[in-house]
């Protein structure tokens, strides 16, 4: 599994064999699909133009089919000629973790052994609805593991000769199986009745998973939370009973579940209040002597290009530069956003700006630029070039902002895409952008 997840991240291309190594980005089909190996070209560095560190488009199209050529051309490379690097392809960071490895194994297992058909709409609804519940992730994961028979209950342990017990320690009436823990246990049934979870009459011919899915789907929002909470709570107290000898009573269980559900509601209310506060934040002009740059990208999936926008404003909120560029060979949103930030620094250096505040609504890109650690992601060459460009300024800081505070740049990107404008907006800003810029300044003035 580890070897299947290894991928070469292209730097200078000197260490990567064109035909044998996995170096095409993505989770699948990472090797060049060819029937004939062409010996004169053996390493990826031979596919690059030495003068300007770009891909040799003509050569690549001559060697491989158009789809493969497009995948190659979409790989970012830079003048820095970084070393080639082996990365873990199943995580965007390129770093292998036990969690990501486990996730890959479980995904493969489910794809080969999953109970449901890929066309079973009820199961799709169940999975989507469950992950969307406003409950902690650990509870969602427990329900998912229990549903897919991945918890160490007595039946699973006995099958592996790890215990002699088999009877449910909660009700002491039946064998402890996945079916039992999902709905047959008397203790669980009593909890659902006390919490007014309505279980509709179900066809006796259905297996236990189908019954559980149908009951869950027909429940209303709060009852769905109670179903998930009760499954997790019962497992939690079951383990306390087995491993610590801590007994429980039905009133205690019900109080625990009701209290937990009530606390989740309060947390959600506070989160909504916090989100509302964030929405009330306004765009802030830079201090005197600084220039604030907002960047954004309008990415078109399937077309391998993006329209990026750069908007520069001074301490009075006045637009001093507004530019849109068409960037080709882009098949990833993060690459498009990173290219937008890179173009922003290139533009501002040409204009002679020395002190910058760079804002964008791509958290991934901003994090990469502010962390001093080795980057293994697809945007590694772009991030490295941005860091190199930064050395030509007196001061540069990067800030993540939500979409509402980046609305002017976003609107400019959309306008540039619709009007097919590439370059400086010499005839003035579009009315839509001008209105956003004026609104940004007005809200700031009202706030102070």
List the main descriptive attributes of the protein structure presented here.
globular, single chain, 12% strand, 3 domains, alpha+beta, 448 residues, 10 strands, two-stranded antiparallel sheet, six-stranded mixed beta sheet, 47% helix, Nucleotidyltransferase, domain 5
Q: Could you walk me through the main structural features you see in this protein, from its secondary elements to its overall organization?
A:
By secondary structure, the protein is α+β, with helices and mostly antiparallel strands. The chain has 3 domains: 3-97, no CATH class; 114-277, no CATH class; 291-447, Ribonuclease H-like superfamily/Ribonuclease H (Nucleotidyltransferase, domain 5), CATH 3.30.420.10. The protein is built from 16 helices and 10 strands. The strands form 3 sheets. Strands 9-8-5-6-7-10 form a 6-stranded mixed beta sheet, with helices on both faces. Strands 1-4 form a two-stranded antiparallel ribbon. Strands 2-3 form a two-stranded antiparallel sheet. Helix 12 packs parallel to helix 14 (380-390) and helix 15 (407-419) runs antiparallel to helix 16. Residues 115-119 have low confidence and may be disordered.
